[in-house]
Prior knowledge:
Layout: E1 7-12, E2 16-24, E3 27-35, H1 39-57, E4 62-67, H2 98-104, E5 108-112, H3 113-124, E6 132-138, E7 142-148, E8 151-152, H4 186-190, H5 192-199, H6 211-230, E9 235-239, H7 248-260, H8 269-272, E10 273-274, H9 282-295
Parallel strand pairs: 1-4, 4-5, 6-9, 9-10
Antiparallel strand pairs: 1-2, 2-3, 6-7, 7-8
Helix pairs in contact: 3-9, 6-7
The structure holds zinc ion.
Amino acid sequence: MSGAPLYGCIEAGGTKFVLGVARDHERMLATTRIPTTGPQETLAAAIAFFADAEAEWGRFDAFGIASFGPVDLDRHSPAWGHIGQTPKPGWSGADVAGPFGARFGCPVGFDTDVNGAVLAEGLWGAARDADVATYVTIGTGIGGGAMVEGHPVHGRLHPEMGHMLPRRHPADTGFAGICPFHGDCLEGLASGPAIHARWGASLSELPADHPAHEIVAWYLAQLAIAQQAMLSPRRIVMGGGVLGTPGLLDRIRIAAERLANGYFATADYAELIVAPGLGDRAGLLGALALAQEASR
Ligand code: ZN
C-alpha cells in the first residue's frame, strides 16, 4: 500500500485537535489528540506530529482540516483558511490552513467540521448514495453542514443552521434563550447549555416523562422541516451529545412527521432522520474526505 496517497487529517475543535495520518478510510496509520490552547502553540504541536509522520511514511499528498467556526471558505479571499470572529482567546483571524500548506508543500482542503462530517457520512456512513444530505450536531452548540451532489455547501459564509429562528413551543414559556446574538434561536433553545440553563440538568438526566424531551424534540424537528423545505435532503444525520438521550431521535421523527403534515413526499421519517453511521469518527474522517477532495 506504500504507493497509495498519504493524507494528513485534522479535526480542529474548540477544546481539542484530533490528528490522523491515513491512506484510506479503513484505518488511521497514526492518531493523536492535543488540547486547543493558543493558535501558535496548537498548530506547532500539530505540525510536529505530522513532521514525524512524514519521516516515517514519506511525503503527504494532501491535508484536510475540518474546523470549528466560523471560518473563511472563499478560495479567492486573502483570509481563506482563517478562523473568523470567535470568543475563543487568540483564535480570531488565526490562519489554520496556511501553515500546513507552507510546511508540507501539498494541497490543503479546509471546511467546517460539520461540512467535513456530512461528506464523510456521504462517502462511508449513514448518508451513502444520498445526492443531498445534511449533518447536524447538537451539543455545546448546534452546527449543521450540507452536501449537494457530493460537494459541501459554502455560499457567503457557510451554513449556520443552529441559528435558525424556530417557532416557540407553547409550553416553553419564560425562557429567553441563551444565544448571545439571537436569544431564542435554535441553539439558544435546544443546545446542551440551553437545556441546562432551563431545567438544571442535561436531557438524559431528566426523567423520560419530563416535558423537556417533547420540547427539545419539537425544536429539532423544526430544523429537519426547514432542511426539507430548503434543501430536500435524502438523509438528515443527527448526532452530538444531546442526541445521546435515549428516545430523542424517535421523538424528533414523530414531531417532524406531525409538523410536515403530509407534505415533502416523505413516507418514513425514520429513514430520513438518522443517527451518524461513523459515530465519533465522523470528524477525523471528514478531514480525510476534505484531503481527498483537495488532492483531486
Ligand atoms: Zn443564535
